[in-house]
Specification:
The chain is mainly α. The protein has 16 helices and 7 strands.
């Protein structure tokens, strides 16, 4: 399909000035409304002399806006009923503006009707503006942006159509959950039931396949031959580029998604995991994976607990330089970090006991604690993350951590923990990650622990990356 090039005309040119000029009478009429109310007070009576000029300018600009609006309507592409409503309301604004000018000229005879007429003008102006916005952006343009509280107050508290309806990208339906939201955000404002640019509607696959005034816009399995895709990649200055200049463009990720959907035959009801994916598409889809809510993450406790009973317990830790924070909004579990408390030692471990039921994440990295701290840690039954990097531990009594039945993450890098200490962790069935870089653990013990806990990730570090030629710069002295 070839793109049609419009030759233009004076009527089209003047008509398209309507969105620019229509704001002039709006501003003037609102000024007239304010002046009319103020001039009724003795203090502001002198403003009365400005009203005839203001109302004449408003009437003339409203009439000219009606003319340009009519010429714009000849372009087509608008829902007829909505267009007619907007047109008659606009004519109503022009008429009432002219009437107001006449009433001002003969204000002695019509003074008592002046304020009611001005109020009618404001109502007509508001209604005409609303329907004009609906023609341009769609009838739900404003309601889509409503905050949740306002939607509930106005009775529009419905699920947002574009919200993700999946928790795993593999289970997302390609058209319904991924493609349709892109079209809704980028294309529906010009291609919907109320505004039919090019006679094209995009609210459903059936309407997309039907096409517009110039024929089909979709060719299955051929994105580069489909107008729906071709117009998205035109240069910004091209008149046929979609979305048009001035509106938010489709992102590169969205382009890849639409290209893939068309290449797959523009299916409906198919999930991502059912379709073939290129490496590039897999990367794009990975970026679309919804984040896991903090209360559903793997390293978050599932049980509910009461809040820490005494604020003095937290204060005592903070006095040592320890940072105590909630692990998430609305959660009573806490994270304790000794990053600024290098002197924290075995005796200070007792300060953790008042928080033992709420303690979920604990970092003792770089502190002065030893193996003597392990019995205290064993009392923290909800402990999920434990960071013991670079502390003076040999792993004696490491089996005490078996009492921490929720432990998932354990960092022993830079410690003196031996094979015996590591192998004593085999009863921690929920343990998922153990870090042993520069620990005193032999490969044989690592392999044995992996054998007993096959799902456990054991990271021994010590990675070496090959040096590339581009990693170094060599300078040569130029003779002479």
């Amino acid at each position: 399909m070839k793109l049609l090039i419009s030759t233009g005309s004076w009527s089209m040119f003047i008509g398209r000035s309507h969105p620019l000029l229509v704001h002039l009478p709006i501003g003037i009429l609102l000024i007239a409304f304010i002046l009319t109310l103020l001039a009724r007070r003795e203090k502001w009576r002198h403003l009365q002399s400005a009203l005839p000029t203001v109302l004449l300018a408003a009437a003339l600009s409203a009439i000219f806006s009606c003319i340009t609006g009519y010429l714009l309507s000849l372009d087509g592409g608008y829902e007829e009923k909505l267009l007619q409503t907007h047109k008659y309301l606009g004519i109503g604004v022009a008429v009432i503006s002219t009437v107001l000018y006449g009433m001002e000229r003969y204000k002695n005879r019509f003074r008592k009707w002046q304020v009611p007429a001005v109020l009618v003008m404001v109502l007509l102006l508001s209604a005409a503006g609303h329907y004009g916005g609906s023609l341009t952006h769609g009838d739900d343009y404003l309601t889509q942006a409503m905050p949740a509280g306002l939607r509930q107050l106005t009775g529009m508290n419905k699920t947002i159509a574009n919200a993700a309806a999946y928790t795993n990208i593999g289970d997302a339906r390609l058209y319904e959950d991924l493609v349709r939201p892109v079209l809704a955000n980028r294309c529906y404002s010009c291609h919907n039931e109320q505004k039919l640019k090019g006679g094209l509607r995009l609210e459903s696959v059936a309407l997309i396949r039907k096409g517009g005034e110039h024929g089909p816009v979709l060719k299955d399995s051929m994105p580069e031959e489909s107008e729906l895709f071709k117009r998205l990649i035109l240069p910004e200055e091209n008149d046929h580029r979609m979305p048009p200049k001035g509106k938010p463009p489709v992102t590169p990720q969205e382009l890849e998604l639409l290209h893939w959907w068309i290449a797959q035959g523009a299916p409906t009801g198919k999930t991502v995991k059912e379709l073939n994916k290129t490496p590039l598409m897999m990367a794009v889809l990975e970026g679309m994976q919804p984040p896991t809510p903090i209360d559903k993450q793997e390293f978050m406790p599932e049980d509910k607990v009461a809040a820490v009973s005494s604020s003095s317990s937290i204060a005592a830790l903070e006095a040592k330089g320890v940072k105590v924070l909630p692990v998430g909004a609305g959660s009573n579990y806490v994270s304790v970090d000794c990053i600024n408390a290098a002197g924290f030692n075995d005796a200070d471990m007792q300060l953790l006991l008042p928080l033992k039921d709420q303690l979920a994440w604990l970092s003792l990295a770089g502190t002065q604690v030893t193996d003597n701290a392990l019995p205290v840690l064993a009392k923290c039954h909800h402990l999920i993350r434990l960071d013991l990097r670079n502390v003076n531990m040999k792993g004696k009594g490491m089996s005490a951590l078996n009492a921490c039945g929720e432990l998932r993450y354990l960092n022993l890098a830079g410690t003196g923990v031996t094979d015996e200490g590591v192998l004593s962790l085999r009863k921690n069935k929920k343990l998922q990650q153990v870090y042993l870089y520069q620990a005193s653990v032999q490969p044989v013990a690592v392999q044995q622990l992996k054998k007993e806990l096959p799902k456990l990730l054991i990271d021994t570090g010590g990675y070496r990356l090959p040096q590339l030629a581009s990693d170094t710069i060599v300078y040569h002295k130029i003779s002479g």
